[in-house]
């Protein structure tokens, strides 16, 4: 049984908060070292994502993937049938990873450069790197794990705060797909 990544993130954050209290961020050399660590980890993440993009485009798996995307929570919309390929789905997931990483860098930039917070630099040097290597795309394309079980597409949306996602998980079972096709919400093809 593997430990939940959210629990390990919490342990790392709490541990790093204690460690960061002991680090003399007033010393310009220490601050420069932490800044370099943050930049290096983001370069590593960017390198991994570029490698994934290359692997996805090289494989170009055109296997059809059908799933029902649930309506957003609180919406009166019907669930939507999505017909795409594994290649397109993986690229869409990779775009979401890039967007998430860039948002984190932007927020960290504001917190550090504008508000002068230094402690989060240390934490944000570890958590995103850990998260990048725990992702499904990395497990499949970098580590070569087969896309079965939890790695079978479509993937469950990552839970937000305390595991509450903004919507339900996509359904790929035959009954849900047929129901969405009959409801007339089918046929949305994503390229």
Work out the radius of gyration: 20 Å
N-end to C-end Cα span: 37 Å
Low-confidence stretches: 161-165
**Element-level helix/strand string:** HHEEHHHHHE
Biggest sheet layout? 3 strands, mixed
**β content, as a range?**
5-15%
What's the pLDDT, averaged over the residues?
87
Tertiary shape: elongated
Structural class by sheet pairing and helices = mainly alpha
Number of strands: 3
Q: What's the SSE blueprint?
A:
Blueprint: H1 5-22, H2 28-59, E1 64-69, E2 80-85, H3 86-114, H4 119-123, H5 127-134, H6 136-142, H7 174-182, E3 188-189
Parallel strand pairs: 2-3
Antiparallel strand pairs: 1-2
Helix pairs in contact: 2-3, 2-6
3D structure, described in words:
The protein is 57% helix and 7% strand. The protein has seven helices and three strands, in the order ααββαααααβ. It has helices at 5-22, 28-59, 86-114, 119-123, 127-134, 136-142, 174-182, and strands at residues 64-69, 80-85, 188-189. It has a three-stranded mixed sheet. Residues 161-165 have low confidence and may be disordered.
Key traits:
191 residues, mainly alpha, three-stranded mixed beta sheet, 7 helices
């Amino acid at each position: 049984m593997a430990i939940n990544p959210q629990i390990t993130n919490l342990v790392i954050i709490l541990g790093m908060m204690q460690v960061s209290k002991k680090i003399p961020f007033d010393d310009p050399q220490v601050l420069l070292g932490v800044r370099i660590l943050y930049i290096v980890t983001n370069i590593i993440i960017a390198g991994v994502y570029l490698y994934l993009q290359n692997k996805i485009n090289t494989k170009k798996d055109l296997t059809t993937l059908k799933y029902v995307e649930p309506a957003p929570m609180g919406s009166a919309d019907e669930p939507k049938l999505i017909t795409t390929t594994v290649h397109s789905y993986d690229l869409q997931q990779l775009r979401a990873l890039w967007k998430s990483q860039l948002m984190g860098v932007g927020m960290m930039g504001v917190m550090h450069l504008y508000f002068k917070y230094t402690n989060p630099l240390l934490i944000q040097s570890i958590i995103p790197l850990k998260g990048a290597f725990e992702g499904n795309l990395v497990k499949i394309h970098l580590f070569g794990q087969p896309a079965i079980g939890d790695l079978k597409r479509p993937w469950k949306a990552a839970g937000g705060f305390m595991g509450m996602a903004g919507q339900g998980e996509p359904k790929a079972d035959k009954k849900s797909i047929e129901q969405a096709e009959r409801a007339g919400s089918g046929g949305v093809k994503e390229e």
